Amino acid sequence: KLTGHTERDIPFTKPDSLTRVFAITSGKGGVGKSSVTANLAAAMAKQGLKVGVVDADIYGFSIPRMLGVDDPAQQIDSMIIPPVAHDVKVMSIGMFVPDGTPVVWRGPMLHRALRQFLADVYWGDLDALLLDLPPGTGDVAISIAQLLPNAEIVVVTTPQVAAAEVAERAGSIATQTKQKVVGVIENMSYLQQEDGSKLELFGSGGGQQVSDRLSEMLEYKVPLLAQIPIDMSLREGSDGGNPVVLQGGEAAMQLEAVAAALTK
Ligand code: ADP
Questions:
Q1: In whole angstroms, what is the distance from residue 119 CA to residue 135 CA?
Q2: Which UniProt keywords apply (predicted)?
Q3: CATH of the domain spanning 17-263
């Protein structure tokens, strides 16, 4: 049960914390933000880092399925033990609500649950904590900015101009929260054809556009970190709890490179 415990400090904001915190955001849903989060986490763990993921997409949680976590969270006293999958510690509201139950919470409840995910979970010493934020600039994004002002933001978008425009908005909350935007990942960039050509199903230029506009807005370089192709094994891996970074291929290589670049 989530008890709403909120007294403990959040270990990741202590001055001596060595944990890098990455919040993965997007403008809208369906662009692959959760898949990217799950894969970056699995890639970092594969690279030997101690990694945790908080599924902060409370209403639309999908991280347990993507990483293949079936176990409920165990509790010792008032501390929660996070299940582990692919060497990644995972915490999600999905571990607390019965299958099929919708989560209908107001802002303050969301805030308390997030705080508990950060402060009342046995994370141990992590090298990296990744947060899968819900799309957009709602309550959770604000709560995370308050709870984890040191979180570094990664923006996921598709190449589509319309998607890029809303992604910019998600990134631009950093002007208010003072969080650092560390990069943009363009996902579903192209479909590799048999003849070697790349079919740009969703258009092109979105990732570069978000990178350029955020760099201008924030007055520092926000790099385009990767252009990840459409890859059926990425989708299958997400559905089956077996992240594509553990299987190989172009999408896997790109995600591994991003994981290494973010944590170097
Ligand atoms: P979001 O978190 O932005 O809502 P998801 O990560 O849930 O998006 O991805 C939406 C769907 O698209 C999922 O079924 C996922 O497996 C699939 N998907 C994401 N990225 C890719 C990709 N590069 N190639 C193929 N399928 C993808």
A1: 23
A2: ATP-binding, Hydrolase, Iron, Iron-sulfur, Metal-binding, Nucleotide-binding
A3: 3.40.50.300
